[in-house]
C-alpha cells in the first residue's frame, strides 16, 4: 500500500481522482475524514461525503500500480454485472445486493424483467428494494420464501479463496442474511477489489447503538482501530436495522477466521463484514473482460 502522503484517491461520489497534499485548509471535507488526518486534496470542496473517501481509501492508495480511470472502473462494474445475468434463469428467486456494482445488476435485471423474464427478488437493503420496485422487479421477503436460488452482490475486498470484506455501503447485516439463504452466491467486482490478503479496507462491524463504546473498547483490545461511521453531514450513520457501524482499521488480517470469531463473541456486535467461505464465484472485471474466480 502506498504512502497516503503521496497518494491519489478516487471518490465514487463525485467520480474524480484527487491528489493528496499537506492540508492548509483543516475545515475542508477531506480533512474531516479520520483516515486522512491533517491532509486534504486539491478539490476537497467537490468531495461531498467523507464516507466515500474512507470507503475508497485503501483501494486507491494501493492502486498506483493498478490504477483504473473512473470510466474504466464503472465499465468494469457494469461488465461484471452483465456477466452475472448468466446465472439468473426464468422462475428463480434472486438475491439482490447493494452498492454501485449491485445497482448495475439490478438495473440490468429490470431490463430483462421488462423483456419477460419472470423472477422474484429478495433485497439486501432498502435502497436496493426501492430500486428494484421502481424497475418493476417483483420483490418478496423471507415470509414468501426462505431459499434464494442465486444472489448477486458486490464486495469491498475479494481474495482468491473468495473470502470477502463487505459492508462499505453499510448493508452488511442484510447482505449476510441474504447470502446465507442462497444456493449460489456470486460476487461482482472490478479488478481493484481482488487482493492477496484481506484488511486494507476498514472492516465494518454493525453494533447496537447503546453498546458502541463498550464494543469499541473490546475491538481495540483485539488490535483493531474502530471509528464510528459518519454521514457526509457528520451525523452517525444508521443502518437499515437502526444500528451503528464501527469501521475498523485492521491492516492486513493474518487469520480472518480467528478475527471473525473474536468479533462475533463480543456482546453488542450484531454482525461483521467478514464473509468467509460464503461466496461461490467472483466475477472480476476490467473494462474489457471478466475473469471468473472460483474457490481454490
Ligand atoms: C455494501 C457492500 C457493497 O457490496 C460493497 O461496498 C461494494 O460496493 P461497490 O459495488 O459500490 O463498490 O458491501 O454494504
Return the structural class: alpha/beta
How many structural domains are formed by the residues?
Answer: 3
Give the termini distance in whole angstroms: 25 Å
Specify the overall morphology. Answer: globular
The largest pleated sheet is described as:
6 strands, mixed
Radius of gyration, CA atoms, in whole angstroms: 19 Å
Kindly state the number of beta strands.
16
Report the CATH C-level class of the largest domain: Alpha Beta
Percentage of helical residues?
25-40%
From N to C, what is the helix and strand string? EEHEHHEHEHEEEHEEHEEHEEEE
Counting DSSP H or I runs of 4 or more residues, the number of helices is: 8
What do we call the CATH topology of the largest domain? Answer: Rossmann fold
Provide the residue-averaged pLDDT: 84
Proportion in β-strands: 15-25%
Adjacency order of strands in the biggest sheet: 5-4-6-9-15-16
Say which molecules are bound, naming each kind only once. ribulose-5-phosphate
CATH architecture of the largest domain: 3-Layer(aba) Sandwich
Low-confidence stretches: 1-66
Would you kindly provide a written description of the structure presented here, covering whatever features stand out?
The protein is of the alpha/beta class. It has three domains: 56 residues, no CATH class; 141 residues, Rossmann fold (3-Layer(aba) Sandwich); 66 residues, Alpha-Beta Plaits (2-Layer Sandwich), CATH 3.30.70.260. It is built from eight helices and 16 strands. The strands form four sheets. The protein has a six-stranded mixed β-sheet. Strands 11-12-10-13 form a four-stranded antiparallel β-sheet. A hairpin with a 4-residue loop joins strand 1 and strand 2. Helix 3 crosses helix 4. The N terminus is likely disordered. It binds ribulose-5-phosphate. The site of ribulose-5-phosphate has 18 residues, from helix 4 and helix 6. The site of ribulose-5-phosphate (5RP) has 18 residues, from helix 4 and helix 6.
Amino acid at each position: 500500500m502506498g504512502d497516503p502522503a503521496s497518494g491519489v484517491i478516487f471518490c465514487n461520489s463525485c467520480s474524480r481522482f484527487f491528489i493528496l497534499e499537506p492540508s492548509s485548509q483543516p475545515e475542508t471535507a477531506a480533512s474531516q475524514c479520520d483516515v486522512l488526518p491533517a491532509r486534504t486534496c486539491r478539490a476537497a470542496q467537490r468531495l461531498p461525503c467523507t464516507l466515500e473517501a474512507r470507503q475508497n481509501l485503501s483501494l486507491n492508495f494501493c492502486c498506483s500500480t493498478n490504477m483504473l480511470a473512473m470510466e474504466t472502473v464503472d465499465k468494469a462494474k457494469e461488465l461484471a454485472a452483465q456477466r452475472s445475468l448468466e446465472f439468473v434463469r426464468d422462475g428463480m428467486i434472486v438475491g439482490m445486493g447493494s452498492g454501485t456494482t449491485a445497482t448495475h445488476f439490478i438495473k440490468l435485471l429490470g431490463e430483462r424483467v421488462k423483456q419477460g423474464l419472470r423472477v422474484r427478488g429478495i433485497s439486501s437493503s432498502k435502497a436496493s428494494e426501492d430500486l428494484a420496485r421502481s424497475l418493476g422487479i417483483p420483490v418478496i421477503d423471507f415470509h414468501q420464501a426462505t431459499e434464494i436460488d442465486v444472489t448477486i452482490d458486490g464486495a469491498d475486498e475479494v481474495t482468491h479463496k473468495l473470502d470477502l470484506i463487505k459492508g462499505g455501503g453499510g448493508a452488511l447485516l442484510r447482505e449476510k442474511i441474504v447470502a446465507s439463504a442462497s444456493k449460489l452466491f456470486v460476487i461482482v467486482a472490478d479488478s481493484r477489489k481482488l487482493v492477496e490478503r484481506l484488511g486494507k479496507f476498514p472492516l465494518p462491524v454493525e453494533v447496537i447503538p447503546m453498546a458502541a463504546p463498550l464494543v469499541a473498547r473490546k475491538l481495540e483490545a483485539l488490535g483493531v482501530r474502530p471509528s464510528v461511521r459518519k454521514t457526509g453531514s457528520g451525523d452517525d450513520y444508521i443502518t437499515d436495522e437502526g444500528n451503528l457501524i464501527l469501521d475498523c482499521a485492521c491492516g492486513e488480517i493474518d487469520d480472518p477466521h480467528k478475527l471473525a470469531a473474536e468479533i462475533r463473541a463480543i456482546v453488542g456486535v450484531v454482525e461483521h463484514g467478514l464473509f468467509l467461505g460464503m461466496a461461490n464465484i467472483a466475477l472480476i472485471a476490467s473494462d474489457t473482460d471478466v475473469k471468473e474466480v472460483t474457490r481454490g
